[in-house]
Write a structure and sequence with these properties.
It comes from Sakesphorus luctuosus. Ovomucin, the glycoprotein responsible for the gel properties of egg white, is composed for 2 subunits, alpha-ovomucin/MUC5B and beta-ovomucin/MUC6. It is found in: Secreted. This is MUC5A protein. With 1139 residues, the protein is of the alpha+beta class. 14% of the residues lie in helices and 30% in strands. An eight-stranded antiparallel β-sheet has the order 3-2-1-14-13-12-11-10, with helices on one face. An eight-stranded antiparallel β-sheet has the order 29-28-27-38-37-36-35-34, covered by helices on one side. Strand 30 and strand 31 form a beta hairpin. The radius of gyration is 37 Å and the shape is elongated.
């Protein structure tokens, strides 16, 4: 439907009429339905003899947009263009202001006289207004209604909509003109000229010639010749809308147009312009051509629009590149510690330098591997942090112990560097220099152990003990331990000695215990911040500085993503007895990570953690004669050896009355002294667990509750080993092996008494002793006897001699996108990103390669926090385009190709598309989507799903081929249309809607509950729980159960991928109503939580599928023997003849 020029209108059904009204009219609205989707009203005025549209007001699904010249208001607030929110996009091209809505409306306004409105066919028979009723019959119900004829004037006046206090006069007469007989036949000439030859076949031209001639007569009187240009332009637009290609009809003296920069005016060109940031935009354009200013087609070089410096059109080779907000012209480069990149015509080409690996234990439980996989382990034992598994040149042990009242409060107690099976302890030892190791303390907070074979240990003491290991690249692919295997592949960091990849961090870490007597740690789901409101507020405030874009740490955000550090900071600060120490330790970890990237954060301690800057020995006082030893904190809890030495009085500094010198040489009162336990300092407030005692430190002395464990009576077959009765140098119970620790050497610092197995037997983990060869294999904390088989992905593994022997098939990679923008890439990197544009999810058109497929997705929001409620997905395959949206799939054919390269089937809740090239797409018709790709595509794809090369560190590769840290920079680069606005913040809906938080946490706790217990040891639930809480907080305007159910279903789906089937739905939690499909009195349909294998269907009568997809939950029919085939469109069982 359209209106143009001198009050001309064309209805949806094709009538053309003239109506010179100057009031506010309903242009088109949605009527005859219980809910009005849209209502568009317009008002015209006459300026300098020419009619022009002064105001358009649109109500689209409750959002009010008001368009006037140069100003766009949404819900009465002025907005900047381009605008994209709650399903409405508004953008401006060289000529048109374009408003698009997800419900199926596109409105083009040239900010002057003409509007073109395109409406989805679903609104047929449901419209009112000047545009008519869209029933497909011209004149009926517009000009002939109930057998009464109406004139254009009467019809137009019926659509008037006055304001509350306005009374606008109806138009009563159409102006008449006396046309001279001998006037110009320019209308006829132009509209039937060669430029419109193709159009004359598509759009009937006679009405337009007549409109043009009327305008020409009128312009004789009103001296306004622009009217005829409007009609020519309208005919051109109608032609393009019908799929034609009008040629340039404008000439320098007929209706000429000027363009900015070096652009050219063209009558028909793709509205999706190629730009520097997205040079392949026009290949995937779905809209018809429009008139406007475009980049000239180059003779040799294709020119694209430079949207980086907005300087018009340039050849693609001259495009600049962007890297964290800085622009680099083509040919320039930047270098970082691990890579150098050069800009080459808008694309980065990067060389990796071999870089040392870093592994760390921070906050007593957060471990980050050499391959940057991060996990938490609340250990209570000595573990192998890292060792050279090939030549055993070094082993690093860490001792993690419980140091608080809860199980999750663990601290790093000692670090041991063991070379050639010798011993070096990392304690607060002084300077030490041996042949292989140099130890020194650059500051009171740190000690560094530097070896000559490529290992450097940095141990932090203040405010908490943390350790950082730097490893030379020569050790790539030969390390093992808690730090992983240093091969740049994150997904196999949990590979254990027995040769299988564990599913959870706890299962993995428990295999690296060095003592059999240590407990196996259980997974823990409690959130320490839920225990204390004050601690949570404190943590939110101070840890919030890390992610604050204007805070003291902001300068480093582009290089080191603060979100993981923020999560760890929240956990530690809430969890610790000394919140400030843990907070400062967590903040200093981030500062250190930045320093490692070469960014020095100066002055961050001015507002937070200032107390460590002033803790220097100011409190000492001078005395002439000091004849006794220094009163130290150590002397409070154990005798001080230096006090037995008599010495001549000296002068110097000492601690004055009643204060004692602590480790850092500062004088403190007794209540701030650490206690000493077996020679190691235990800070004030920390707790020690030992032999049934729970001790904490008060006034410099240990205070214990609980009775000491009596000398244990060993259960048969074990015997008691007592160190006191044995010769020195023998190892005791600390070296007793169990099946789990058989592959560990024994690292013994002193003999420990305890129960041991007689004559070389080993512990079986359940209190018995067995010979070594009978040990079971362990996977995800479950034990398997020799000869048993399990499935790991698409491989089967057999237990032989405590090791798993697995087949080496290449499995399909999976990328999951679920809920409100949660992504899990093919290489298992997880992130959240929610923008309001269309994004390329995965494509194999990367760099210069020409590809075969592309998947584009767009979030369709609901909820005023902009939460996603469904997705629309477009799949481009060869010459087909599949559009998935509103719970069904539609196909657009774009070329001449007879073989259909895909199959579509419905499995339970999911719609599954399988292509012949090896792409499988599973969509639950709402917000969850799983994409599986065959291993042939490894390393050849790009998009939000990463590059599928096994290394998740480089998954944030932007469209211009640079690897970035910032999620927003990565996500925004994959926008399909460069005119769509960037997403500029990652929102935290639980802080925006605090009233939803407790409901969300309560509902989502099902993920951590016993319902899913069988899966906890296979798939870590923590990330899924976090995503569930975020989504449930965000869905605040309806759809809240959907958001919650989708998030839980995503975890259930991950479980069924590893073969754990969980029936979690119940009548009160996310029920599925399968009985809906049963005919009355029948009972074929049932809910299956883990799906069915391939069914015999009408589309696939053989019942064999390309890929057997496990576990797609939903409603499935059990088809009876007389009707064995399932008809997917009618959703019922039929016999073959009925197909």
């Amino acid at each position: 439907c359209s209106t143009w020029g001198n009050f001309h209108f064309k209805t949806f059904d094709g009538d053309i009429f003239t109506f010179p009204g100057l009031c506010n009219y309903v242009f088109a609205s949605h009527c005859n339905t219980p809910y009005e989707d849209f209502n568009i009203q317009i008002r015209r005025e006459v300026v300098a003899n020419a009619p022009t549209i002064s105001r358009i007001i649109m109500k689209l699904e409750g959002v009010v947009a008001e368009l006037t010249k140069g100003v766009v208001m949404i819900n009465s607030n002025r907005v900047q263009l381009p605008y994209s929110q709650s399903g409405i996009t508004i953008e401006k091209s060289s000529i048109y202001l374009k408003v698009g809505s997800k419900i199926g409306i596109v409105l083009l306004w040239n900010e002057d006289d003409s509007i073109l409105l395109e409406l989805n066919e679903k609104y047929a028979n449901q419209t009112c207004g000047l545009c008519g009723d869209f029933n497909g019959f011209p004149i009926y119900n517009e000009f002939i209604s109930n057998n009464i004829r109406m004139t254009a004037l009467q019809f137009g006046n019926l659509q008037k909509m006055d304001g509350p206090t306005e009374h606008c006069e109806d138009t009563t007469s159409l102006p008449t003109y006396n046309c001279p007989d001998n006037f110009d036949d320019i209308c006829q000439k132009t509209l039937t000229s060669s430029a419109f030859a193709e159009c004359n076949d598509l759009v009937d031209v006679r009405e337009y010639i007549k409109a043009c001639e009327d305008d020409l007569c009128r312009s004789e009187e009103s001296k306004n010749a622009s009217c005829i240009c409007d009609t020519f332009a309208e005919y051109s637009r109608q032609c393009a809308h019908a799929g034609g290609h009008p040629l340039n009809w404008r000439t320098s003296n007929l209706c000429s147009k000027k363009c900015p920069y070096n652009m050219q005016y063209q009558e028909c060109n793709s509205p999706c312009a190629d730009t520097c940031t997205n040079p392949e935009r026009s290949q995937f354009c779905e809209e018809h051509c429009i008139d406007g200013c475009f980049c000239p087609p180059g003779k040799f070089l294709r020119t694209v629009f430079d949207d980086i410096s907005n300087s018009g059109c340039i050849p693609q080779q001259q495009c600049s590149c962007i890297y964290n907000g800085n622009t680099y012209t083509t040919g320039t480069s930047f270098s970082e510690p691990c890579q150098t990149c050069t800009c080459n015509g808008g694309q980065w080409s990067c060389q990796d330098k071999s870089c040392p690996g870093t592994c760390s234990v921070e906050g007593g439980s957060h471990i980050s591997t050499y391959d940057k996989k991060r996990y938490d382990h609340h250990g209570d034992c000595t573990y192998v942090l890292s060792k050279d598994c090939k030549d055993e040149t070094f082993t690093i042990l860490v001792e993690l112990r419980k140091c608080g009242l809860t199980d999750t409060e663990t601290c790093l107690k000692t670090v041991t560097l063991n070379m050639n099976k010798g011993q070096t302890e990392g304690d607060s030892a002084p300077r030490l220099h041996s042949a292989n190791v140099t130890m020194f303390r650059p500051s009171t907070f740190f000690m560094i152990m530097q070896t000559n074979f490529g290992v450097q240990l940095e141990v932090q003491f203040t405010p908490m003990m943390q350790v950082f290991v730097r490893l030379d690249p020569i050790f790539k692919e030969q390390t093992c331990g808690l730090c992983g295997n240093f091969n740049n592949i994150q997904t196999d960091d949990f590979k254990v000695i027995s040769g299988i990849i564990e599913g959870t961090a706890t299962a993995f870490a428990n295999t690296w215990k060095t003592q059999a007597s240590c407990p196996n740690i259980q997974q823990n789901f409690e959130n320490p911040c839920a225990l204390s409101i004050d601690n949570e507020k404190y943590a939110q405030h101070w840890c919030g500085l890390l992610t604050d874009s204007k805070g003291p740490f902001a300068d480093c955000h582009y290089a080191v993503n603060p979100s993981v550090y923020h999560t760890n900071c929240m956990f530690d600060t809430c969890n610790c007895e000394n919140s400030e120490d843990c907070l400062c330790a967590a903040l200093s970890s981030y500062v250190r990570a930045c320093a490692a990237k070469g960014i020095q954060l100066q002055g961050w301690r001015t507002d937070v953690c200032p107390k460590y800057t002033t803790s220097c020995p100011k409190s000492l006082s001078y005395s002439y004669t000091i004849s006794s030893c220094q009163p130290t904190c150590r002397s409070l809890s154990e005798p001080d050896v230096t006090c037995n030495i008599k010495f001549v009085p000296v002068d110097g500094c000492t601690c004055i009355n009643g204060t004692y010198m602590d480790e850092s040489g500062k004088c403190v009162p007794a209540n701030e002294c650490p206690c000493y336990y077996r020679g190691t300092p235990i800070p004030f407030g920390e707790v020690v667990h030992e032999n049934g005692h729970v001790c904490n430190c008060v006034q410099g002395r240990l205070n214990c509750i609980g009775a000491p464990n009596p000398t244990p009576v060993c259960e048969s077959p074990m015997v008691y080993f007592d160190c006191k009765n044995n010769t020195a140098g023998k190892t005791g119970a600390e070296c007793q092996k169990s099946c789990q620790t058989l592959d560990m050497q024994c690292y013994s610092s002193q003999c420990t008494s305890g129960c041991v197995c007689p004559n070389g037997l080993v512990l079986d983990g359940n209190g018995g002793c067995i010979p070594e060869e009978e040990c079971p294999c362990i996977h995800n904390e479950a034990m398997y006897q020799p000869g048993e088989k399990i499935n790991a992905g698409c491989n089967t593994c057999v237990c032989k001699n405590r090791k798993w022997e697995c087949t080496k098939n290449q499995c399909l990679g999976t990328c999951a996108v679920y809920g409100d923008g949660h992504y899990n890439t093919f290489d298992d990197k997880r992130f959240s990103f929610n923008g309001n544009c269309e994004y390329t999810l995965v494509q194999d058109h990367c760099g210069t390669a020409s590809g075969t497929f592309r998947v584009v997705t767009e979030n369709i929001p609901c909820g005023n926090t902009g939460t996603t409620c469904s997705k629309s997905i477009k799949v481009f395959l060869e010459s087909y385009e599949l559009i998935l949206g509103e719970e069904h799939v539609s196909v657009v054919k774009r070329g001449q190709n007879d073989t259909v390269p895909y199959t579509v089937r419905y499995m339970g809740m999911y719609l599954v598309i399988e292509t012949t090239s090896g792409l499988i797409l599973m969509w639950d018709k709402k917000t969850s989507m799983f994409i599986k790709l065959s291993p042939d595509f490894k390393g050849q794809i790009c998009g939000l799903c990463g590059n599928y090369d096994g290394n998740s560190i480089n998954d944030f590769t932007t469209r211009s081929q640079s690897v970035v840290e910032n999620v927003l920079e990565f996500g925004n680069s994959w926008k399909v249309s460069s005119t769509c606005p960037d997403a500029y913040s990652i929102k935290d809906p639980c802080s925006t809607n605090p009233y939803r938080k407790s409901w969300s946490e309560k509902q989502c706790s099902i993920i951590n509950s016993n319902v899913f217990a069988a899966c906890h040891s296979q798939v870590e639930p923590a990330k899924y729980y976090q995503a569930c809480v975020t989504d449930a907080c965000a869905c605040d305007t309806g759809g809240d159960c959907d958001c919650f159910c989708t998030a839980v279903a995503a975890y259930a789906q991950a479980c069924s991928e590893v073969g754990v089937c969980i029936a979690w739905r119940s009548p009160s939690i996310c029920p599925l109503f399968c009985d809906y499909y049963n005919q009355q009195g029948e009972c074929e349909w049932h809910y299956k939580p883990c799906g069915a294998s391939c069914m015999k269907t009408c589309r696939n009568p053989s019942g064999k599928c390309l890929n057997d997809l496990p576990g797609l939950e939903g409603c499935y029919p059990n088809c009876p023997a007389d009707k064995p085939y399932f008809h997917e469109d009618q959703m019922k069982c039929v016999s073959l003849c009925d197909c």
